[in-house]
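Translate sequence into C-alpha coordinates.
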Amino acid sequence: MITTSRDSPAALDARSSRAWIAGRRARSNEEKATGDARSDFRAADVGAGASQIASLDAQIAGQRSGAARFQPAFGNHAQAAYTTRQRAYYVQRKGKVERNYEPYDEQIAQNRRDP
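Result follows.
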Protein backbone atom coordinates (compact mmCIF):
# COMPACT_ATOMS: atom_id res chain seq x y z
CA MET A 1 0.00 0.00 0.00
CA ILE A 2 1.31 3.35 -0.94
CA THR A 3 0.79 6.16 1.54
CA THR A 4 0.62 9.67 0.37
CA SER A 5 1.58 12.72 2.30
CA ARG A 6 -2.13 13.34 2.75
CA ASP A 7 -2.49 10.13 4.77
CA SER A 8 0.62 10.59 6.89
CA PRO A 9 0.18 10.92 10.66
CA ALA A 10 1.46 14.49 10.57
CA ALA A 11 -1.07 15.42 7.91
CA LEU A 12 -3.87 13.78 9.91
CA ASP A 13 -2.77 15.65 13.02
CA ALA A 14 -2.72 18.94 11.10
CA ARG A 15 -6.19 18.31 9.68
CA SER A 16 -7.60 17.31 13.05
CA SER A 17 -5.99 20.36 14.66
CA ARG A 18 -7.51 22.61 12.02
CA ALA A 19 -10.87 20.92 12.52
CA TRP A 20 -10.60 21.38 16.25
CA ILE A 21 -9.69 25.05 15.85
CA ALA A 22 -12.55 25.58 13.40
CA GLY A 23 -14.96 23.88 15.78
CA ARG A 24 -13.71 25.96 18.67
CA ARG A 25 -14.17 29.13 16.63
CA ALA A 26 -17.69 28.07 15.74
CA ARG A 27 -18.50 27.41 19.38
CA SER A 28 -16.92 30.71 20.33
CA ASN A 29 -19.03 32.53 17.76
CA GLU A 30 -22.14 30.76 19.08
CA GLU A 31 -21.22 31.80 22.60
CA LYS A 32 -20.75 35.36 21.42
CA ALA A 33 -24.07 35.31 19.63
CA THR A 34 -25.92 33.96 22.63
CA GLY A 35 -23.82 36.16 24.91
CA ASP A 36 -25.38 39.23 23.35
CA ALA A 37 -28.79 38.19 24.60
CA ARG A 38 -27.34 37.47 28.01
CA SER A 39 -25.65 40.83 28.12
CA ASP A 40 -29.02 42.46 27.34
CA PHE A 41 -30.51 40.61 30.29
CA ARG A 42 -27.55 41.58 32.45
CA ALA A 43 -27.98 45.22 31.47
CA ALA A 44 -31.67 45.03 32.36
CA ASP A 45 -30.81 43.40 35.69
CA VAL A 46 -28.25 46.08 36.44
CA GLY A 47 -30.78 48.78 35.60
CA ALA A 48 -33.41 47.19 37.83
CA GLY A 49 -30.88 46.81 40.62
CA ALA A 50 -29.81 50.44 40.32
CA SER A 51 -33.40 51.66 40.52
CA GLN A 52 -34.05 49.41 43.52
CA ILE A 53 -30.96 50.77 45.28
CA ALA A 54 -32.11 54.34 44.59
CA SER A 55 -35.52 53.48 46.07
CA LEU A 56 -33.91 51.94 49.15
CA ASP A 57 -31.65 54.97 49.57
CA ALA A 58 -34.75 57.18 49.58
CA GLN A 59 -36.41 54.95 52.18
CA ILE A 60 -33.30 55.03 54.38
CA ALA A 61 -33.14 58.80 54.16
CA GLY A 62 -36.80 59.01 55.19
CA GLN A 63 -36.24 56.69 58.14
CA ARG A 64 -33.22 58.67 59.28
CA SER A 65 -35.11 61.94 59.15
CA GLY A 66 -37.96 60.38 61.12
CA ALA A 67 -35.54 59.00 63.68
CA ALA A 68 -33.92 62.42 64.06
CA ARG A 69 -37.32 63.90 64.99
CA PHE A 70 -38.08 61.18 67.56
CA GLN A 71 -37.54 62.32 71.15
CA PRO A 72 -37.87 59.45 73.65
CA ALA A 73 -39.22 60.31 77.07
CA PHE A 74 -36.61 59.00 79.48
CA GLY A 75 -37.30 58.84 83.17
CA ASN A 76 -41.09 58.75 82.97
CA HIS A 77 -43.22 56.72 85.37
CA ALA A 78 -44.07 53.94 82.90
CA GLN A 79 -40.44 53.30 82.11
CA ALA A 80 -39.50 53.19 85.80
CA ALA A 81 -42.32 50.72 86.50
CA TYR A 82 -41.23 48.54 83.56
CA THR A 83 -37.61 48.54 84.73
CA THR A 84 -38.64 47.61 88.28
CA ARG A 85 -40.85 44.77 87.01
CA GLN A 86 -38.08 43.40 84.78
CA ARG A 87 -35.64 43.54 87.68
CA ALA A 88 -38.08 41.56 89.85
CA TYR A 89 -38.48 38.94 87.09
CA TYR A 90 -34.70 38.65 86.82
CA VAL A 91 -34.28 38.13 90.59
CA GLN A 92 -37.07 35.55 90.53
CA ARG A 93 -35.52 33.59 87.64
CA LYS A 94 -32.05 33.79 89.18
CA GLY A 95 -33.36 32.36 92.47
CA LYS A 96 -35.10 29.53 90.62
CA VAL A 97 -31.91 28.58 88.77
CA GLU A 98 -29.87 28.67 91.98
CA ARG A 99 -32.45 26.45 93.70
CA ASN A 100 -32.11 23.96 90.83
CA TYR A 101 -28.34 23.83 91.42
CA GLU A 102 -28.61 23.22 95.20
CA PRO A 103 -29.14 19.42 94.96
CA TYR A 104 -26.13 19.10 92.68
CA ASP A 105 -23.99 21.19 95.01
CA GLU A 106 -25.06 19.02 97.95
CA GLN A 107 -24.22 15.85 96.00
CA ILE A 108 -20.79 17.21 95.10
CA ALA A 109 -20.11 18.16 98.74
CA GLN A 110 -21.19 14.71 99.93
CA ASN A 111 -18.95 13.00 97.36
CA ARG A 112 -16.00 15.07 98.53
CA ARG A 113 -16.61 14.12 102.15
CA ASP A 114 -17.01 10.41 101.38
CA PRO A 115 -13.95 9.27 99.43
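Note: The two ends are 101 Å apart (CA to CA).
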